[in-house]
Design goal:
Elements: E1 2-12, E2 41-42, H1 44-56, E3 61-62, E4 65-66, H2 67-73, E5 85-87, E6 90-98, E7 104-108, H3 110-123, H4 126-130, E8 141-142, E9 155-157, E10 160-162, E11 165-166, H5 168-178, H6 190-196, E12 197-199, H7 202-211, E13 214-218, E14 234-238, E15 244-252, H8 253-258, H9 263-273, E16 278-280, E17 291-299
Parallel strand pairs: 7-12, 8-11
Antiparallel strand pairs: 1-15, 1-17, 2-6, 3-4, 5-15, 6-7, 6-15, 8-12, 9-10, 13-14, 16-17
Length: 300
């Protein structure tokens, strides 16, 4: 069914508000979350829309249509061509939280890692998946060197303390992942990245990803009177910078051919049109929000 599969990484360079439109809590404008886990996510429709917008900026417009973009992502006119690319929702794998030492830590959990292992198998990345086959997912784990240690055994994330064990297999797995990250961010270099990562329990991870996002209370000021307009106070939620997510990307052979392209041309055009390797996803564009560094690699 799929001729080619890719794993796409997203690394948050700024805070991001990819909104859900659901305000059942005290937060007026919450971010998108999975219904059953409450983990932050970026829905495939939001991600695909951002990719389309980035591609259109570098594409040629012919008769009101973006020729290459429409062949890849589907025509906007009368549904002439369906998208050759299928995307999954972007899932969180490493979430940044405040640390008593080392400024901040990246946390992950057994469930987040096992879901990633499953997704790697789905797109054909057996190397990443196989490294977790014999991994013991019980306990709190860290790498040999850590900038998070308050003393020889303890770390403090926000107001909680943990005593992680050194785990060579966890460290090896992180080293493989770090080599695949996007961009040139110094913190994503293998040695620096591994020093900040800790695996905590699923329950603790759930607490942090629901309670440790950024909240901003905003107002609207009347441009004439210079005072706050009545009823214009609202709270907006953001996914913090340094969040690391991933998405799965699939190329459908039949749709590629109907769009008048080969799979090789699809890959070439994607790289050409997304040469900046940056995406702006979600709202508050004029506030500099939602900028992600991206990269992908493919497996047949």
């Amino acid at each position: 069914m799929f001729e080619n599969k890719k794993l796409m990484w997203l690394y948050g360079l700024t805070s991001a508000h990819v909104g859900s439109g659901d305000n059942l809590s005290y937060i007026d404008l919450p971010i998108q979350r999975e219904k059953h886990t409450k983990y932050p996510k970026i829905e495939a429709s939001s991600l695909k829309g951002s990719i389309r917008q980035a591609m259109e900026r570098k594409d040629e417009e012919v008769d009101g249509q973006y020729s290459v973009t429409n062949k890849l992502l589907g025509s906007l006119k009368d549904g002439e061509v369906a998208s050759a690319i299928s995307l999954s929702d972007a899932r969180i794998l490493f979430f940044p939280v405040k640390s008593a030492k080392g400024v901040f830590a990246w946390i992950t959990s057994p469930m987040a890692m096992q879901r990633f292992q499953q997704d790697c198998r789905l797109v054909g990345f057996s190397e990443l998946a196989d490294k977790l086959n014999d991994f013991n997912f019980k306990g709190v784990r860290r790498c040999t060197e850590s900038v998070l240690l308050v003393n020889s055994t303890q770390i403090m994330l926000e107001e909680f303390d943990f005593q992680p064990e050194v785990c060579a297999k966890f460290e090896e797995w992180l080293g493989i992942i770090a080599k695949k990250f996007p961009g040139e961010a110094p913190l994503l270099k293998e040695d620096e990245f591994k020093k900040r990562v800790v695996m905590i329990s699923d329950n603790d991870f759930s607490h942090f990803v629901t309670q440790s996002t950024e909240l901003s209370t905003r107002i609207k000021v009347n441009s004439v009177t210079g005072i706050v307009e009545k009823g214009a106070l609202f709270t907006e939620e953001y996914l913090p910078p340094e969040s690391i997510l991933y998405s799965l990307l699939f190329l459908t052979k039949e749709r590629v051919q109907k769009g008048g392209l080969t799979s090789e041309e699809v890959e070439t055009k994607m790289n050409e049109l997304l040469v900046d390797k940056l995406l702006q996803i979600g709202g508050d564009r004029t506030h500099g929000k939602g900028i992600f560094s991206i990269s992908w690699e493919g497996a047949k």
